[in-house]
Amino acid sequence: MILAFDIGNQHINFGVFDRDVLRASWRISTRVEGTPDEYAVLLNTLLRRSDSAYKFAGGVLASSVPPMIPTFVELCQAQFGWTPLVVGAGVKTGVKIRTDNPREVGADRVANALAARTLHGAPAIVIDFSPITIFDALNAQGEYVGSAIAPGLNISADALFRSAARLLRVELAPPEPAAPIGKNTSNALRSGLVYGYISMIEGMVARFKRELGQDARVIATGEQISLVVAQSPIVDVRDEQLTLRGLQLIYELNR
């Protein structure tokens, strides 16, 4: 068994793999000031809540928050007696990166690309519905050829409400009734935020497919998949744990 950690700016996803099977996964808040001991308490509490007894042979982590890397390296060394594989320069990923500066491509992006190609095929468009919405492109050979970055739904909503003091915050859900033309301020806001966001997703996918080919599969991951899938048929594959699966594959390549 191994532990995989996907450390993002707002959340940390981690999962338990038994060979290539994801047995359990959890998500906790990212706290840069958190100590290895504090995260160890959280980790052990969640592991104890499951029905299985875990004994880990190793681990792997990807982090878009560099200060968190030594925290989790120390945690793994103290708790389990091994040093996790940190995805970065010099680590085999099996993914060719065809961008101007491959070092700019985050470890989580590479993990997503590997999992998408291995598990779901290429060409592919991977959309990560996290606080920031990221579109990653894989060509027919499974090479990573670039990306697009856009505000996530929550970021857009926060910016709108901060800029317009008289607008009250609304639930990030489709208007009721489900019509794009709102008859009141609440529905107008919900229509613009939700339908506008989904229209952006559909428009970007259309543009990506013009370059990658119409057979490119749309693979969705991240925290807001459900909202988009419920309102649009644009997604072909839904895989909430795509990044963790990619990290497990990278671990196997480097074992």
Which helices and strands, and how do they pair?
Elements: E1 2-7, E2 11-18, E3 21-29, H1 36-49, E4 58-63, H2 68-80, E5 85-86, H3 107-120, E6 124-129, E7 132-138, E8 144-151, H4 153-163, H5 185-212, E9 217-222, H6 225-231, E10 237-238, H7 242-254
Helix pairs in contact: 1-2, 3-7
What does this structure look like?
The chain has 255 residues and is α/β, with parallel strands linked by helices. The protein folds into two domains: 85 residues, ATPase, nucleotide binding domain (Nucleotidyltransferase, domain 5); 141 residues, 2-Layer Sandwich (Nucleotidyltransferase, domain 5). Helices cover 39% and strands 24% of the residues. The protein has seven helices and ten strands. A five-stranded mixed beta sheet has the order 3-2-1-4-5, with helices on both faces. It has a five-stranded mixed beta sheet with strand order 8-7-6-9-10, sandwiched between helices. β7 and β8 form a beta hairpin. α1 crosses α2 and α3 packs across α7.
